Each structure stands twice: as C-alpha cells, then as structure tokens.
Amino acid sequence: MSYELNRKLAARRDPLPTNVNIDSVTADIIRGAFETVCFESATFLGRAASSPIINQSNERNAAIVDGHGRLAMGAIGTPHLTFVNQMETRWGLMNQERYDWGPGDIFLANDPDHGGGHLPDYCVYGPVYDEKGELICIQTLQAHQGDTGGKDPGGFTLEATDIFTEGVIYPCLKLVHRGELRKDVFDFVVRNNRFATFAGDIAAMIGGVQHAVRMLDSLLAKWGSETVKAAINHSVEHTERRVREEVAKWPDGIYEGTVLIDHDTAGTKDIKVHVTCTIKGDQLTVDLTGTDDRQDLVGVWNTFANSRSYVMTQVITHMDPTIVRNEGMFNAVEIIIPEGCIAHPPPNKPAALGSFHPACEITEAVTLALSQVAPERAQPQLYKIGMPNAVIGFDDNGMMWMDQGVDCRSMDASAIQGIDGWGSCPNALGNLILSEAEDAESRFPILNISREMKTDGGGAGQWRGSPGSLNVKQVLKPLSAMAWMVSAEHPLRGMCGGEDAIPYENHFEVGTPNERKIEHTAQDLLPEGSVIAYQHGGGAGFGPSLLRDPEAVKEDVLDEYISEKAAREVYGVVLKGTLENYDLEVDVEATEALRKEMGVDELLSEAAE
C-alpha cells in the first residue's frame, strides 16, 4: 500500500512471448471473439443478478486482461470501469504463488490501494490457462454492489477519514479453488454485506466469469494459445499506433483546464482539479500537477487507478471511436498524477465518494483542455450529481433496505458540435440505462410523485444541452436520508462558447414548515409522508447561443425545452403566435435586428476566422 506499488501496477507491460506471426484479419477475428466473450459475461451477470443496480441499471463491466496484465479487450459496460480491471488484477498477478493461482480459480478484489476503484466496485476474475498450463489471460467482471459492510449503508460515509470506515477490503480473495466454491469464504463475504440480495449478486458474478472462462477455453482450443497471444499483441500494438496517429493530427502545444468542486464533505470550499495536456508530435501527456493536495480534505479522494481510468475515458472520446479500447491507449498516452493530490491519495484514504468527485472534474478538465485541439468531440463524460438522495429503512423482519436514488432521471447530457444534448444520462455511463421508477416503488416504501424535465434546464448554445429533471419522491414510512450536494456553485461547464448547465439543487420535507434546502451534506431522519425534491443539473451547451438556428429555437419552445423568454433574451429569437395555440413562428426581421444588437456579427466574424 504505497506510491511505489502504484508505480509498479501502472508500469508498461511487455508483449506476450509467441513464435507466431499473425495476419491482421485473423487477429481481428480473435479480437471480435474476445468482445463477444465480454458481452456474454456481462449479459450473464445482468440477467442473473438480483440488485436493480446490476440487473436494470447495468452498472457492470466485463474485460479481458492478458497474462502480463495488459487490457486485451474492454468494451462492455460502464466506460470508467473498463480501464480499472487491468490494474486490479495486476496485484494478483504479482502474487500468483502467494494466492495459489490455478485453473478453475475465481478471485474477488475491491481494494483501492491495490489497483481498485472505490469499495462498492467489486471485481471478480478468473485465470485462463492453455493445455500446457501457461497463463494466457484473465476474465474479469466488475459490478457496483449496493453495500460494502462499512459504517454506513451503501459504503458512502460522508465523514470518513480512512478506508476502513467504508467497508470490508479485499486485495485478492479466492472464492473458488480449482472449480470448487470455498463455502466458508463465500459465507464470510456475504455476511459482511447488509443486503439479502447480495449472495445472489456475487454468485451471478462468479457464474458470469466461469461462463466466459469456458468460452475462452474453447477459443484457445480452436486457435491455439500461440495464435491467441499473437492476436492480443497485434491488437494492442494497432491501438497504440492509431492513438498516436490521432494525436499527431493535433497542433503541438500546451492546453490547460481547471475545474472546481463546490466543497468537500467537511465544508472546505473550492477543491481544485487542474489538467495540462501537452502535445508534441504523436505524444500526448496528461498532467494533473496543480490538483488540490491538502491532506485535511474529506470525501474527495479518488484512487490512483480510478484517476487513470477517468483520464483515459475522456481522452479517447476526442479520438476516432473505432479505435479498439485496450492497453495500447495507455502505451500511447503518458499520464502524470502527483503523489499526495486528491487524484493520487496516500494509502488508506476513503475512496467511495471520490468516484463522483474529483473523478468527474478530472474528465471535465481534460475536456476543457482538449476542446482547444479537437472541439468537434468536446463532450465531458461525467456525472456532476454529487451524491444521489439515498433513503434507508428496515422491513418488518429487521432487514435493511436502501433506495440509492439511481433510478430514472435526466442529467448532464451535454451538447457536442452538431448535436444537441439528448438522452437521460451522459455518455460516461455507457450502457447504464437506469432502473425504472416503478421498480423502486415495488421494492421500497416510496412513491415517485413526478419526474419532469425542467424548461431552460439545459445550457444554452448553438447546440443546447439536454434539460435536467426535477425528481420528486415521497417516503411512506419514517426513514433516514443521506446526501452530499455539489455542482450548485460550479455546475457543468459549457464548451466552445456554450453556456453552463443549470446547477443541482435539493430540498427535504417539501411543502412543510420544516422544508429545507440541502446546501452541503445531509444525514436526516424523515417522518412518514415526507417529500424530497432533487433537481438534477442539465447538460451544458456547445457554441454561442446567438448562432443557433432560429427554427431550432422555435421547435425547442414548442417542445418546452426552453421558454419564450429565453428564446428572446438568450438566443435573440423573436417569436410570433402563442405556445398555447401551437402556432409559433419566427419573426425573421425582428430576430435579425435583435441578434445584431446582441452582437451576432462579431461572433460570425470570429467563427469565420
């Protein structure tokens, strides 16, 4: 548990030894088979798990790591999880003899100080050997679990100052030995979790890995291990070459981005994330020097592996999307994260909330920097949510339940050049579709009163952000609620002249004398019938709003994405008719005059240059 260990875990790995020279077609067929294996593994988990976080929200990821610890395939699931798997399995790889690795084994890891993300992200993995007993690859499966056995339900403790407060830590724990479940270990893991569904969820993860391992065994039998190793080498080398080709197209220079977090969970304001992207030829260096390193901060520590992952999640969105996601990306991009800053904490710092912030600010700062060289792809892959409202209670049998507030909502879906923000959540969440509000009502004593997008709730721009939603919920029994509010003072930033998104806002006990706005954190007891209202921030705009097509503005007003007032005052568009009669038209002459008065000519001149 040291900075030295992080350096070892992140060090570049050599190609796999093989005597086969492979052609690109065969290599790509095997790469495609790897992708299919990952898809099947993740789908197995999604269908077998009990938790709505997994079986509805799809917050899981499958990836294949090769025998040297390189990411060989990682394209299925939540993007930021994709780039953590190889770090988490490398600790086990470095200690194969210590943990007695062999065919049929399945391991569990979640340790932030041994290559992991935050504790709730459990990684279950199994090694794959050829007929000679050589380790060829490792199938991994990650999923966010609803609890970690720590002080507070869900693994999120607002005041935690060390990792031990947050839950049980597994650097590398063998769940299955040579194909046989270790029942004592399995029962130990299950007992250290509050949720009755957890046993089924962890069993589903084991089953998903075992299913994938059998598929990989068949793949090795068909092609031979030497050919498969050659295919992995080819794919990694091809990705590195493609990434360097993309970087070489960008102008050399130094590009910076700075983003602030409203406050940590102790109330310290304006926590800074700073990113410098340096381009020199085909080499991109992403340096987080200047990021906050105050050691007394609370709740804003992101693990080293997670920070690397969030950097790469954003970097690759500025490149050709057909580039295969694998270790070649890390070989092509140098990532510098100073030891001791909030993106590379000392050992044993709490990590649960860091996967929200500063993780999201890292991606946002990278976007601000790279928007200067690749503006056509500048869309931040983040969720500025702070922490969703979590409500917690107990059933008649004394079993705890928790509605983690991750069901349907609209937030943070920013615009990009040529496309308005759309959808209910940002690209960073990948195939995370969010669970249904009705499902939460069937499981928990809550009632979803409304889920409405807010007019003018997206950042204005030549292409506008998607509006955020106001989620109103009533609790039907006395219970406790927990929240950490950020992104009110520093909402999602607009890109290339676009306007910022609306800020987040949260109220408890709405409509009563006790109604209160949550300004910082909350761990409150709510009486039966209480109403809570969470306003999610919308997506940010892209490009100056005065350059938006007036007809698009009219359609936005008709769809109630923006108000008639905003159409005139923000977009400079004058409308005739009424929204009530649905007969709005653009007053072309009045619009041209108003936009001229608001400075559109200067914007057009700048755009032409």
Summarize this structure briefly:
This protein has about 600 residues and is α+β, with helices and mostly antiparallel strands.
Task: Tally the beta strands.
Answer: 22
Q: Helix proportion of residues, in percent?
A: 25-40%
Shape verdict: globular
Biggest sheet: strands, sense, closure? 7 strands, antiparallel
Beta strand %: 15-25%
Instruction: Please state how the strands of the largest beta sheet are arranged side by side.
Output: 2-1-5-4-3-6-7
Helix/strand/pairing class, anyone? alpha+beta
How many structural units, i.e. domains? Answer: 3
Mean pLDDT: 93
Termini separation comes to 52 Å
Explain this structure.
With 609 residues, the chain is an alpha+beta fold. The protein folds into 3 domains: 3-240, no CATH class; 384-543, no CATH class; 549-608, no CATH class. The chain is built from 16 helices and 22 strands. It has helices at 3-10, 24-48, 52-55, 79-82, 85-94, 183-191, 198-223, 225-248, 304-317, 328-332, 359-370, 437-443, 550-558, 564-569, 588-598, 600-608, and strands at 60-66, 71-77, 106-109, 121-129, 135-144, 173-177, 180-181, 253-263, 269-280, 283-287, 333-336, 387-394, 400-403, 446-453, 469-475, 479-484, 505-508, 516-517, 521-526, 531-535, 575-576, 585-586. Strands 2-1-5-4-3-6-7 form a 7-stranded antiparallel beta sheet, sandwiched between helices. Strand 8 and strand 9 (269-280) form a beta hairpin. Helix 2 (24-48) packs antiparallel against helix 7 (198-223), helix 2 packs across helix 8 (225-248) and helix 7 (198-223) crosses helix 8 (225-248). It is globular and about 80 Å long. It starts with a helix and ends with a helix. The model has no long low-confidence stretch (mean pLDDT 93).
